[in-house]
């Protein structure tokens, strides 16, 4: 239990640290950040339950006012910004990413993590982000989805990087992936 709590806190901290990488804010108020990579990794490494809890902890701390979101943002004002859908969708995206890697555990870990990051970290996160942007910016869902298309290439790269990092973890420290069933030859080396 203590190990699980430590891993959840560690990934919440990782997402906060990724927010320190300078963000590029687009004209419609949504920044390009590395934090979505942290969300993908939380789900892909920890699995659905722990990954979702790690990201929920991060979001909870940010909503309480800690300046953890990209650009040093935090507090209830986040709910009035164009990023609200992404912030609300972060825990769901991590949960879905973890759920996919758990269901695809028979595939190579990098492949299952890449697929999970694509489904949870892009499709699910964009669904939430698009709805939030449409509401806050008073745009149609189609207009908000078009605005979100600015993020697609970067997020595809992040999903690929997530897959590569998880593949490396599976090779070097398979016990760090609770959902992964490493081949017997790899466990006893």
From TrEMBL:
Keywords: Cell membrane, Membrane, Transmembrane, Transmembrane helix, Transport. It is a multi-pass membrane protein. The chain crosses the membrane at residues 6-30, 51-70, 76-101, 113-137, 149-172. InterPro entries: BioY. The keyword Cytoplasm does not apply. One of its GO terms (molecular function) is biotin transmembrane transporter activity. It is found in: Cell membrane. GO terms for cellular component: plasma membrane. Its main location: membrane. Gene3D superfamilies: 1.10.1760.20. It comes from the Bacteria. Belongs to the BioY family. This is Biotin transporter. It comes from Paracoccus onubensis.
């Amino acid at each position: 239990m203590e190990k699980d709590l430590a891993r959840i806190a560690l990934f919440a901290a990782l997402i906060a640290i990724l927010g320190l990488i300078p963000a590029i804010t687009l004209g419609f108020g949504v920044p390009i950040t590395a934090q979505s990579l942290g969300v993908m990794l939380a789900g892909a490494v920890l699995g659905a339950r722990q990954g979702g809890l790690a990201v929920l902890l991060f979001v909870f701390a940010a909503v309480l006012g800690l300046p953890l979101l990209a650009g040093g943002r935090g507090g209830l004002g986040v709910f009035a910004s164009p990023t609200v859908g992404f912030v609300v969708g972060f825990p769901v995206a991590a949960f879905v990413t973890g759920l996919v890697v758990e269901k695809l555990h028979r595939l190579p870990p990098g492949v299952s993590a890449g697929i999970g990051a694509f489904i949870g970290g892009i499709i699910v996160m964009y669904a939430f982000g698009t709805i939030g942007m449409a509401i806050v910016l008073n745009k149609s869902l189609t207009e908000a989805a078009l605005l979100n298309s600015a993020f697609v290439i970067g997020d595809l790269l992040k999903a690929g990087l997530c897959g590569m990092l998880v593949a490396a973890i599976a090779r070097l420290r398979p016990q760090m992936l609770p959902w992964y069933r490493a081949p017997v030859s790899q466990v006893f080396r």
